[in-house]
């Protein structure tokens, strides 16, 4: 049978240290965050993998990023009777923010010590907490026909063996999104740089081409003019008209034959 608020009020003063009556809540008691915490690193920016446990001052705030685990030790030490079983949970206020208890939901009979909650932030944004904040529930139930098993020693601090399992960082969706955005930004910057270089090369090529054309035109303008071409006039007489070239029978420059008969000379004093 579960303990009611009267049973809790009557017995918890000897089972929870320090006990505060104001934290008694109907059929449960509210446990608070203690002095030591550990939050898994995101590996993004300054949140590197070289994180250690953190000691909190009273009332000091901290946050659990989205997609990250945390180990939270209670301020109170709990003693569970041999004939009882305790149950633990996170308060609904923090569940609505995405904080989930993944460390178990009961405390064995005979347990003595502080409780360590392993929690995971399944929400879309960071969960902000502080030392002394009452964010856990514990409630008790009687056991029938239970044989005592001896005392079970709990924790005083968060042991390193628990830390090492989550110390390498958790690849949360938000962390991956940040890394993807960083890669996209680097790629965009690289593309802009390549486009600038291509633009410079294009302008340089255009400039060199213009200089080459200018020098060629200038050299051409300075060259001496070519000699005029000699016109060749064809002989009209040598024109072939539907047959072989007609050859003149006499040269036009040949002088005409003289038709005058030379006069014979007559010796003086003789009659013909």
Automatic annotation (TrEMBL):
Instruction: Provide the GO biological process annotations.
Output: dUTP biosynthetic process
- Highest taxon in the source lineage: Bacteria
Q: Which organism is it from?
A: Rhizobium leguminosarum
Q: Print the keywords alphabetically.
A: Hydrolase, Nucleotide metabolism, Plasmid
Q: What is the name listed in the Swiss-Prot or TrEMBL entry for this protein?
A: Deoxycytidine triphosphate deaminase
Residues covered by region (Disordered): 239-272
MF-aspect GO terms: dCTP deaminase activity
What the entry lists under Pfam families is as follows: DCD
Spell out the InterPro entries in the cross-references.
dCTP_deaminase, dUTPase-like_sf, dUTPase_trimeric
């Amino acid at each position: 049978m579960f303990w009611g608020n009267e049973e809790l009020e009557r017995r918890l003063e000897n089972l929870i240290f320090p006990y505060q009556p104001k934290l008694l809540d109907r059929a449960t008691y509210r446990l608070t965050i203690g002095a030591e915490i550990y939050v898994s690193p995101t590996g993004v920016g300054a949140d590197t993998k070289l994180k250690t446990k953190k000691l909190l001052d009273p009332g000091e705030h901290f946050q659990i990023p989205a997609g990250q685990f945390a180990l939270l030790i209670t301020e109170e030490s709990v003693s569970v009777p041999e004939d009882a079983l305790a149950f633990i949970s996170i308060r609904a206020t923090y569940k609505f923010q995405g904080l989930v208890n993944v460390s178990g939901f009961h405390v064995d009979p005979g347990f003595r010590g502080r409780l360590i909650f392993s929690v995971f932030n399944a929400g879309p944004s960071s969960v902000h907490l502080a030392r002394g904040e009452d964010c856990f529930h514990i409630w008790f139930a009687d056991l029938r026909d239970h044989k005592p098993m001896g005392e079970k020693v709990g924790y005083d601090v968060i042991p390193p063996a628990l830390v090492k399992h989550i110390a390498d960082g958790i690849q949360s969706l938000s962390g991956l999104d940040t890394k993807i955005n960083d890669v996209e930004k680097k790629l965009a910057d690289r593309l802009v740089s390549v486009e600038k270089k291509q633009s410079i090369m294009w302008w340089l090529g255009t400039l060199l081409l213009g200089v080459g054309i200018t020098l060629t035109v200038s050299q051409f303008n300075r060259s001496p003019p070519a000699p005029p071409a000699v016109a060749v006039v064809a002989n009209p007489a040598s024109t072939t008209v539907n047959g072989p070239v007609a050859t003149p029978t006499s040269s036009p420059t040949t002088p005409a034959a003289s038709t005058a008969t030379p006069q014979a000379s007559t010796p003086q004093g003789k009659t013909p």
